[in-house]
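Customer escalation, tier 2.

The customer says the design service returned an amino acid string that "doesn't look like it belongs to this structure." They asked us to rerun it and document both sides in this ticket. The original C-alpha cells are below, unchanged.
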C-alpha cells in the first residue's frame, strides 16, 4: 500500500522531469506557471515564493518526485520550530509525496487554493509507515501526512500551532506496519480521550469517533506488543458444549444418615471448573471430549468439572478476595488515604501478573467482576464469571486480552479490551460479547491436575 494520491484534475498535467514541481495560477495547466527544482535547495530548507507572481495565487500543482521524496507546500513563510515534520506556524500545508511519476493536484480540493507562499522538501523512509490526517470526513479537505520516520517513538508529540490542530475528522493509515500503532490525543499533554490505530487491520476511519472529531492535538507512535501462549486456542482446547447448557442438577450430593445434602445447581454455571479443566488439558497436552452437550450428572467427567469448580473457589482465601473486589469502588477514593478502585487494581496490579503468566507460556484463569456481581450482597458472588486468558495485545493505551470464555464454546474471537491511560478513574473493560465489565484479577492458586475424565481418549 502507498500514500493515497490527492485529487487530480482531468485531464492531468504533461510529464515533468524528475524532481520538478510546477504551480499554476488558474484551474488549467497553462496559466502563469511557477517552476522549481528540488535540486536548487538543500533538504529541509524552507524556500519562499513571497513577492513572486504566484504568491497566494496557485490553484493547480503538478510534480514529479522520486519515491520517498516529499515536498510540503505552506501557507506561511516561517522558521521551523523543532523537527522537520513539525508544521507549527506554517498555516495550511499539504504534502506532495513522490511516486516516481508526474502527478497533478487540485489545490482547491485540499483547501490550499490561493495561499501557497513557501515550501520545503526532504526524503522520508516510507517503510516505517505513515498516517494521513484529513480536515473533513470521508478524506476531504486539507491533508497532512505524519511520516513516522520523522518522529521519535513512544514520545508525546503536540500538534500545537498546526493548522489541523483540533480540525482532523478522518484518517488513513494503509502504510502503517503491522507491528506499529499510533495514538491520538484530545489534548497536547496527552490527557483526555484518545484514539488508537494500528497496522494490519482496518486502514482508514472516514469519521473519527471516541469524542476525538475536531479535537486531535497530539500523537504518539510505538511498537505494538502482542503475546500468545504457544499453540493454545479455544477452538483446540476449549469444550464444545457451553457453560450455559448445564442441566438443573446439584453440583454435589453429600450423603448423610439424615438424608442427602444437595449443593449448588449446575444450571447456574460451572465456569470456574470448566476453565480450570481446560487449562489442565493444555498443560497435559490432551484434547477435550468432543461431545456437544455437557456430561451427564454424576458421571466421571461431570464430577471432575465440579471438583475443579470447587478448586477455583479456593475457600476461604479465594472467596474473601472476590468479595473484597465486589464491594470496591470502580475508581480510586481518597478520604484520608487513597483506597484503590477496581480500575486501578485491574490495570496496575492484576494485568502485569496476567502478562507474566502468558509470557511464561501458561494461560491464566481470570475472575471477572460483572455489573450484576458488583454487590455488597454475598449471595451475588456467583453472578461473577471466570475465563481463561491466553494472549494480550498492547496498542498504545489500549490493551486487549484474548480469552477462552466457557459461555462461548470454542470461539477464538472473544476478547476483553480496555484503555490504560487513567487507572485511578472509572474504566470500562469491554467484553466482546457481554459488554462492560468492572474489572478482573488473576486466579494464581491454580494447580494442575490430570484431566483424563474430560480428555478425548484418542488424544
Amino acid at each position: 500500500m502507498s500514500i493515497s494520491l490527492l485529487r487530480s484534475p482531468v485531464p492531468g498535467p504533461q510529464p515533468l522531469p524528475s524532481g520538478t514541481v510546477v504551480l499554476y495560477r488558474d484551474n488549467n495547466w497553462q496559466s502563469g506557471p511557477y517552476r522549481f527544482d528540488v535540486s536548487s535547495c538543500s533538504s529541509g530548507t524552507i524556500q519562499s515564493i513571497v513577492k513572486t507572481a504566484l504568491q497566494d495565487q496557485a490553484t493547480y500543482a503538478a510534480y514529479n518526485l522520486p519515491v520517498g521524496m516529499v515536498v510540503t507546500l505552506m501557507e506561511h513563510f516561517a522558521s521551523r520550530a523543532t523537527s522537520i515534520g513539525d508544521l507549527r506556524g506554517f498555516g495550511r500545508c499539504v504534502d506532495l509525496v513522490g511516486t516516481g511519476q508526474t502527478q497533478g493536484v487540485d489545490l482547491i480540493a485540499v483547501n490550499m487554493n490561493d495561499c501557497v507562499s513557501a515550501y520545503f522538501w526532504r526524503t522520508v523512509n516510507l517503510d516505517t509507515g505513515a498516517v494521513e490526517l484529513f480536515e473533513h470526513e470521508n478524506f476531504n479537505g486539507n491533508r497532512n501526512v505524519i511520516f513516522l520516520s520523522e518522529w521519535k517513538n513512544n514520545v508525546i508529540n503536540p500538534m500545537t500551532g498546526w493548522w489541523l490542530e483540533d480540525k482532523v475528522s478522518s484518517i488513513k493509515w494503509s502504510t502503517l506496519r503491522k507491528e506499529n500503532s499510533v495514538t491520538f490525543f484530545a489534548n497536547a499533554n496527552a490527557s483526555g480521550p484518545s484514539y488508537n490505530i494500528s497496522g494490519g487491520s482496518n486502514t482508514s476511519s472516514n469519521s473519527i469517533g471516541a469524542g476525538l472529531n475536531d479535537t486531535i492535538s497530539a500523537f504518539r507512535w510505538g511498537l505494538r506488543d502482542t503475546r500468545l501462549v504457544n499453540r493454545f486456542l479455544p477452538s483446540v482446547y476449549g469444550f464444545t458444549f457451553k457453560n450455559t447448557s448445564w442441566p438443573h442438577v446439584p453440583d454435589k450430593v453429600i450423603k448423610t444418615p439424615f438424608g442427602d445434602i444437595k449443593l449448588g445447581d449446575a444450571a447456574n454455571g460451572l465456569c470456574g471448573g470448566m476453565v480450570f479443566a481446560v487449562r489442565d488439558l493444555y498443560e497435559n497436552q490432551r484434547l477435550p471430549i468432543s461431545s456437544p452437550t455437557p456430561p451427564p450428572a454424576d458421571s466421571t467427567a461431570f464430577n471432575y468439572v465440579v471438583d475443579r469448580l470447587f478448586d477455583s473457589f479456593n475457600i476461604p482465601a479465594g472467596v474473601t478476595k472476590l468479595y473484597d473486589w465486589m464491594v470496591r469502588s470502580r475508581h480510586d477514593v481518597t478520604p484520608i488515604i487513597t483506597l484503590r478502585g477496581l480500575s486501578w487494581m485491574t490495570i496496575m496490579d492484576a494485568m502485569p501478573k496476567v502478562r507474566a503468566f502468558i509470557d511464561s507460556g501458561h494461560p491464566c484463569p481470570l475472575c471477572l467482576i460483572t455489573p450484576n456481581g458488583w454487590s455488597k450482597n454475598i449471595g451475588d458472588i456467583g453472578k461473577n464469571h471466570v475465563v481463561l486468558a491466553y494472549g494480550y495485545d498492547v496498542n498504545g493505551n489500549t490493551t486487549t486480552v484474548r480469552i477462552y470464555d466457557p459461555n462461548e464454546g470454542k470461539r477464538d474471537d472473544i476478547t476483553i479490551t480496555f484503555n490504560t491511560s487513567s487507572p485511578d478513574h472509572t474504566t470500562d473493560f469491554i467484553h466482546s460479547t457481554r459488554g462492560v465489565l468492572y474489572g478482573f484479577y488473576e486466579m494464581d492458586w491454580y494447580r494442575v491436575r490430570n484431566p483424563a475424565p474430560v480428555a478425548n481418549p484418542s488424544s
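Tier 2 assessment: The sequence is consistent with the input. Residues 20-224 form a domain with the Gamma-B Crystallin; domain 1 fold (CATH 2.60.20.10). The chain has two domains: 20-224, 234-442. Sent an explanation to the customer and offered a walkthrough call.
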